[in-house]
Amino acid sequence: MKKEEIKKLVSNMTLEEKIGQLTQIRTSYYNNMNTSGTGTKSKLNINNNQKWMIGTVLGKLDAAMMIEIQKEYLKNNRLGIPLLFMHDIIHGFKTIFPIPLALSCSWDEGLVEKTARISAKEGSSSGYQATFSPMVDIVRDPRWGRVIESYGEDTLLNSLFGAAMVRGYQNNDLKEEDTLISCVKHFAAYGAAEGGRDYNTVDISEYRLRNEYFPPYYEAIKAGAKLVMASFNVLNGVPSTVNRWLLREVLRNEWMFDGTVISDWGAVKELIPHGVAEDSKDAAELSLKAGIDIEMSTTAYFEALPELCKDKNMEKLLDEAVEKVLLLKNECGLFEDPYRGVSTEKEKKTLLRSDFRKVAREAASKSMVLLKNSGVLPLESNKKVALVGPYANNKSILGPWSLDGDLNDVVTIYEGIKNKNIIIEAVETTPFSDINEEDISKLMNKVTTSDVVILALGEEEKQSGEAGSVSKISLESSQVKLLERMKELNKPVIVLLVNGRPLDLTNIINKADAILECWFPGTEGGNSVADILVGDYNPSGRLTMSFPNGVGQIPVYYNNLATGRPKDLLVNEKRYKSQYLDIPNEPLFPFGFGIGYSNFEYSGLTFNKNKIKRNEEIKCSIKVTNKGKYRGIETVQLYMRDKVADTSRPVKELINFKQVEINPNEIEIVDFVISEKQLRYWNTENQYKSDDGVFEFTIGKDSSSGAMFEVTLIS
Ligand code: BGC
Fold first, then answer.
1. Residue 35 confidence (pLDDT) above 60
2. Does one domain contain both 375 and 488?
3. Within 178-235, where are the H helices?
4. Which member of 262, 304, 416, 593 lies 3.0 to 4.6 Å from 527 by CB, making a disulfide possible if both were Cys?
5. pLDDT of residue 284
6. Which family does it belong to (predicted)?
7. What is the whole-number distance in angstroms between the Cα of residue 643 and the centre of ligand 1?
8. What is the pLDDT of residues 624-639, one digit of tens each?
9. Which residues' Cβ are closer than 6 Å to ligand 1?
10. How far is the CA of 186 from the centre of ligand 1 (A)?
């Protein structure tokens, strides 16, 4: 359909039909399925006429249902405008990949894109046209349960992986039936909720928004995302839902976003408890004026817009919003084919294909991060193992945002290890908490004949995800007890962690002989764990969120701004510097950290210039040698520091990285080109600019180490 035809269609619509297009309700209003979505499930005040005017729905579906609902809908919709189906397809649809935070630890853009491509193929085959993903909120507080959905604490990584997800979903051509419209969320800065408590206040200077929080949304939009979700939170006093600066000035005017904007679940009416709207009328007016095109899961628009649109200016805003929704439907070809090629046969052939499972296994292996290894890993083939803990043989390893994953398809850790023909002397799946002394003693008797104990510990799925904020981020005390008692047997103990956030591992770090962070690894999780345990995969994951040295450090992240009293420089000063008196400043495991079975040595740093002008480039390189016995992937990280700027700048910023796969005893030269553009930041004059002066660059294996050189930028 052409743009003019859409305008014409809008002009033929009644006021109520227009409002219907702007209202999103649950799919269950049409299929009576009890959807396991999010948010409060209060019944909406939608009458039977309005039901056939609704523009978009969200919630569970399959191909047969979609066909049935669309058929019925089109019979009843006066103008024959098809319904658009949206859903939370976050890290896989039927084939579940690791949680996004885990995926980011692969540092592999191509792989991340592949997972989204598969999600789009699967999701679209079941009747969806849009997914509420990616979430590119920067996260620095592991108490917040939704860190599982982000790509971590770094701006560059969220930008790269967010854009990769958009490309994977939309594949540059939404007319293709196997694509999904991508919705970037949650605009803006939802991840900075005070105290890590979900839905809580966010207060961030424009300086930090522009330099740290905005770029990932912008890059996802540049990659083509057609939908943006406003966040629940108050941003600097104004809820995003009614934040005209955010939604109109920044998003529309500056970034030239011409897609559609949706509220988060119930957020329009939540303006009342937020204290910025008196009633539904107020909420509807403020939201439409701010630029919310679709109201998700409340009906303030239905209730108030008929009255409000007596005002010509409001009616104009209404028409613009309706156009945006119709354009979205047009974008994905719904007007040409309201079913978008969906059939039950195609669905059956598409879901959980064996090649999709292969990618899930690769993704899970590449996402896991080996945090400690005193030499017990990889396991020698003749060793007898005992497998104990809440995740020993537990299918619930998909993660809290895998709404459509089927537990029957999951490979558990036990099944994965069994596939490797390892002798398993004992398997005990224990409760998450409340393991008493007696049970532990019984368990100890069962493991006496094994050579190694593998403890599969972690958090329950419900402990993270939306509304999954917690104040304690260490393992349950009974799991720690289990580890302590197992250690008494004088056997090596390997800890596998299945969880959704960086944990406080201070109370187990010295007790375990090896620790593998497995995250919620998805459908193929058990196979990937086993691949790593036996050395079929050499662990290559690197952290994208720091693991704190105690909750008292939170937020702790690698790219904090420089202070006037830096602890590491004031070596002779005992007290008056930026530090904690009782714990170190450094996290337990820094951003970028991860070990493997090879030892990669860095040497021979080179760089071509120590002074550059703005039109020149810096070329630098480093030699990486695999000194180990295993072929492996190394992630070479390039950081910079702007030493004298207009404002205080981060002590380190990731500006590039490269992955190289190297055979034992072989060398790779890894080179980078740095351009002036990478040195820019949002300054006090509200411009993205670089400053003349000294820049420090570090090439290393994580954010806490590396080879350093300086270059001066001159005009
Ligand atoms: C979440 C969104 C999600 C939406 C729809 C909300 O509660 O914040 O991320 O996309 O529900 O399920």
1. no
2. yes
3. 206-208, 214-222
4. 416
5. 98
6. Belongs to the glycosyl hydrolase 3 family.
7. 41
8. 999 999 999 999 999 9
9. 37-39, 58, 88, 132, 185, 264-265, 466
10. 9
229 C-alpha vs ligand 1 centroid, how far in Å?
A: 9
Identify which of 552, 499, 542 has the alpha carbon closest to the alpha carbon of residue 147: 499
On whether both 530 and 602 belong to a single domain, the answer is no
Alpha helices in 256-311 (DSSP H): 271-274, 280-290, 300-308
Among candidate residues 488, 534, 482, 539, the one with its CA nearest the CA of residue 507: 482
Alpha carbon of 10 to ligand 1 centroid (Å): 28
pTM: 0.97
Query: Do residues 503 and 632 both lie within one domain?
Result: no
pLDDT of residue 45: 84
Say yes or no: 508 and 368 in one domain: yes
> 264 catalytic, yes or no?
yes
Q: Whose CA is nearest to atom 2 of ligand 1?
A: 264
In testing the pocket of ligand 1, which one of 60, 88, 165 has its CB within 8 Å of the most ligand atoms? Answer: 88
Out of 265, 296, 297, mutate this one to test ligand 1's pocket (max ligand atoms within 8 Å of CB): namely 265
Provide mean pLDDT across the span 526-532.
98
Question: Does 528 share its domain with 602?
Answer: no
Structural domain tally of the chain?
Answer: 2
Q: Are residues 498 and 630 in the same domain?
A: no
Find the mean pLDDT for residues 682-711: 97
Is residue 622 located within the same domain as residue 525?
A: no
* CA–CA gap between residue 127 and residue 64 (Å, rounded): 8
**Cis before 378? omega within 30:** yes
CATH of the domain at 652: 2.60.40.10
Which domain CATH number covers 377? Answer: 3.40.50.1700
Whether the ω angle into residue 91 lies within 30 degrees of 0, i.e. cis, is no
Domain final position from 513, 534, 555: 534
Range of the domain at 440: 353-534
* Partner residues linked to 610 by β-bridges: none
Instruction: Report pLDDT for 32.
Output: 67
540-573 pLDDT, tens per residue? 999 999 999 999 999 999 999 999 999 999 999 9
Q: Enter the tokens of residue 111.
A: 């792989």
Indicate the pLDDT class of residue 43, thresholds 50, 70 and 90. confident
Are residues 638 and 524 part of one domain? no
**Structure-token match 């049409």, residue found:** 30
Residue-wise pLDDT for 143-200, tens only, equals 999 999 999 999 999 999 999 999 999 999 999 999 999 999 999 999 999 999 999 9
